[in-house]
Amino acid sequence: MLQKLTIKNYAIIEQLEVDFSGSLNVITGETGAGKSILLGALSLILGERADPGVLHNKDNKCVIEGNFKVKKSQVAEFFQQHELDLEDQLIIRREISTAGKSRAFINDTPVNLSQLHELSQYLVDLHQQFDTLELEKSDFQREVLDALVNQPAPLQQYQQGYSRYVAVQRELKQLHDLRNNANKELDYNKFLLDELTDASFVPNEIEELDAELKVLSHAEEIRNTLSRVYFQLKEDEQPLLQQLKQIQSSVQGLSNFHKDAPGIAARLQSAYVELQDITGEIGHMNDQVQTDGARLEHLNERLSLGYRLLKKHAVQTTTELLAIQEELAVKVDGVLNLDEKLEGLEKELETLQGRLLAQAAAITAGREKAAVPFEKSVNALLAQVGMPNARLKAAITKGALNQFGQDTIEFLFDANKSGNFAPIRKVASGGELSRLMLCIKSLVAQSVALPTLIFDEIDTGISGEAARQVSFIMEGMAKGHQIICITHQPQIAGKADAHYFVFKDMKSGKVTTNVRLLTREERINHIAQMMSGEKPTAAALENARELVK
Questions:
Q1: For residue 441, which phi and psi values (nearest 5 degrees)?
Q2: Contact criterion met (CB below 8 Å) for 347 and 390
Q3: Helices (DSSP H) in 445-519: which residue ranges?
Q4: Residue 85 exposed, middle or buried by CB count within 10 Å (0-12, 13-18, 19+)
Q5: Which residue positions in the chain have pLDDT lower than 70?
Q6: Which of 140, 271, 458, 494 has its CA 20 to 30 A from that of 433?
Q7: Reported CATH class of domain 1-129+457-518
Q8: Quick one: which H or E segment has residue 513?
Q9: How far apart are alpha carbons 387 and 490 in whole angstroms?
């Protein structure tokens, strides 16, 4: 419930504060006095975008603040989702700086406009003069029936399943596209994979084969060199090993004459041992090097295959070639497994579709059940507001599965009891739409826990008995909801629990808008003026007094 609205420096409002009652609040005033400006300011704290041109004084910022009394259970989910502190008193503030920048706060915590707009859905239903256009939209008509069914759980459960259904459909399409594209490449990839698989290379094989080929290709030269070196080291007339041993012994003999001789002798001994070991390894290498024509031919063939595959796949090493082989195997297996994946998804889609159809049928049944008393109630209310021959019919036709079931809902209207029903958008006039919207909202309000409903001249185009009946509907709605209504109808004004008068005033040479809560006698006088002009007659005053009673 909106308890207080404070407006500073907005449009032609310098500053005002309005305390609202919890029942029927009526706002009246001359055309152009600024009644709708109040709702414009209110819409800003409900998440509407701000126009920097609304500043009354360009040197000061604009501040609009609304104090709401809320039931924690109604907004707990929103506050928990956005990690905001929840209190019994809810204060929403909107500020527009002189530079045109806008900021919003919920209980002094900064929020963005989308959060503000989302919260407003829990607090206020704002019906303005042109909102009757919503009545022509299929989504609104469906929402009306669902509100009257008032069982959100089945629809929420259906929508969860439908989200998965859409996701599976999307995944199926992607896999079909992938398979179609992959099939074009499958044969070539399989050929490449078979070629690499048949080659059967192991890690580092090409590099090792290349090293072995160099040895075999120069076996004779290697053996000759190694044999000559081995001979010089060990078997020559004066082998190097023997000469080094003699040198070491000679230096060792000087140990008694020079202090450095033992150290040099030890180093020569180490060199002798190292050279002796090298000689052994040279002999071993020489024994290993053999000429093998068959092995040489095998190496050439194997390396030729390896080099060809390296060049074909534009890589340098066996490791890179094996990585390509693994990638190709994954691609080929992926394509070969696509059919299995597709089959699994198609089965899941079939199961989901069957479940959704059953859930959608239950949702349709609920809507059809709600439609009958809805039509009856609306038609009764239409007669009450001066349209006795008007009839509304909620046509429900089944179609493809969608986010909200499988129903197409169309409100059909017959203004003259002709039996010829047509879509509202084609046959209802503006005045008829206004009264029809009021009738529908009065019914929906009984099912939806929305504390505040705001009507901006919804009574446009009606008068007399129709206006009187509208006032009864407003009065009835106000028993369970806070109603804020801008009106020109004295019949509606007479039902108010709180009557606010909007007027223009001159201040410092500027026109400003002000609001005053009328006393009982002021209300009687003002309602009489609404009926008969600026100087009301005694009869008008008596009628006004009767209305206020």
A1: -65, -35
A2: no
A3: 464-477, 490-493
A4: exposed
A5: 126-136, 182-184, 292, 448-451, 460-461
A6: 494
A7: alpha beta
A8: strand 510-517
A9: 20
What b/e readout covers 441-463, taking b as 16+ CB neighbours within 10 angstroms? bbbbbeebebbbbbbbbbbbebe
> Which tokens in the block code for residue 469?
């009946």
Cα separation, 326 vs 304, whole angstroms: 22
pTM assigned to the model: 0.63
CA distances from 23 to 26, 37, 475, 496 (A): 10, 22, 8, 8
Q: In sequence order, which residues have a C-beta less than 8 Å from that of residue 89 and are 6 or more positions away?
A: 67, 68, 69
| Cα–Cα distance measured from residue 135 to residue 438, given in angstroms and rounded to the nearest whole number | 11
What is d(CA 337, CA 182) in angstroms, rounded to the nearest whole number?
12
pLDDT at 129: 41
Residue-wise over 219-228: b if at least 16 C-beta within 10 A, else e?
Answer: eeebbeebee
CA atoms within 13 A on the CB side of 130: 1
pLDDT at 130: 38
Three-state DSSP string of 166-222: HHHHHHHHHHHHHHHHHHHHHHHHHHHHHHHHHHCCCCCHHHHHHHHHHHHHCHHHH
Task: Read off φ and ψ for residue 122, nearest 5 degrees.
Answer: -85, -15
